[in-house]
Write a structure and sequence with these properties.
mainly alpha; two-stranded antiparallel sheet; globular
């Protein structure tokens, strides 16, 4: 899944700002590679996106739960009045965001899927202005205009429909779910540290998927298959279990820990803006590895959307 940063805002960059930037960049690179690895699994096997999402959430939760339990077990205690928010947050902010992202990149070029999801900051700024009546700079309207114009270029609306409709819908709904993640995260991190919140929310997501899709019906036989890595690596094969292990550990646990650690050195707004390089890196990895290409208009549209997202991020 795309990089997600909790809004535990700090006033200014810390003394190790360079380390923070390095952490965010490394996290974005891992998430970017993970997008292509996930697409290879989704398109090269019969494993449904729902099952890969379940495996990712459960595996990442178990890794983080072991880490937190060994280092600071008290962080996993949950107060009764937290339960409702954690359940909502885990289902919408983790389970649905990850699943919708997988649906989008399975049906669309990875760069476009990421771009659609990363319009979430524009929705956050609009919600803050229109619903919470927070003071928001006027640039939010310019951000909205740029995002919409850029997406029109990406979709090439003057041509016949070229993008998969379900993929586009999944990307847009993913943006809404990610915006919900950001907004709810602002409240949740007021009383709980980001690491334990991420761990517990992933736990909720794991339970949610286990109820909808019991583990005894999981297609474990798919994990034993060997698949081509496709694209430029078509002649190379790898076991599915190894690719799934990448999705869980280097593709989820490591980048989450890096991005959360970066918040010790940088304000959340800066972390979120730097994290947007995942869109560029994800498209680049997909181009080099899978041969996914974008037209000149789509590349221009992507740049316009990114400018709009930066304006939205800095409007609050």
């Amino acid at each position: 899944m795309t990089e997600i940063v909790l809004h535990g805002e700090r006033g200014s960059a810390g003394p190790h700002a360079r380390l923070g930037y390095a952490m965010v960049t490394a996290a974005a690179m891992l998430f970017a590679v993970n997008g292509t690895v996930s697409k290879v699994v989704l398109t090269g096997t019969d494993m449904p996106s729902l099952r890969l999402t379940e495996l990712r959430a459960t595996g990442a939760f178990l890794c983080l739960a072991v880490f937190v339990a060994l280092t600071a077990p008290g962080r996993l205690r949950v107060a009764r009045d937290e339960i409702g928010l954690l359940v909502f947050y885990g289902i919408v902010g983790f389970a649905l965001v990850q699943w919708l992202y997988f649906v989008a990149i399975e049906r669309l070029p990875i760069g476009i899927g990421l771009l659609l999801e990363f319009t979430a900051p524009v929705l956050v700024a609009l919600w803050a202005r229109l619903v919470w009546h927070e003071p928001v700079r006027r640039r939010v309207w310019a951000a909205l205009a740029l995002a919409l114009a850029g997406l029109c270029l990406v979709a090439e609306v003057w041509e016949d429909v070229r993008l998969d409709t379900l993929g586009v819908v999944a990307g847009i709904v993913a943006a809404g779910a990610l915006a919900t993640y950001f907004l709810a995260g602002e409240h949740a991190t007021a009383r709980r540290d980001a690491l334990s919140l991420t761990c517990l929310s992933l736990g909720v997501a794991a339970i949610f998927w286990a109820v909808l899709q019991p583990w005894w019906s999981f297609p474990f036989e798919e994990l034993g298959e060997t698949v081509s890595l496709q694209g430029e690596l078509e002649s190379v094969s790898a076991p599915v279990w190894l690719l799934c292990l990448w999705v869980v550990v280097p593709g989820t646990v490591f980048p989450f820990v890096l991005s959360l650690s970066a918040l010790r050195h940088l304000p959340a707004t800066r972390v979120s803006i730097v994290a947007m390089i995942e869109v560029v890196l994800g498209a680049l990895v997909a181009w080099v590895w899978l041969g996914e290409t974008l037209t000149s208009a789509q590349l221009l549209g992507g740049a316009v959307v990114l400018v709009g997202i930066v304006l939205a991020q800095t409007s609050r």
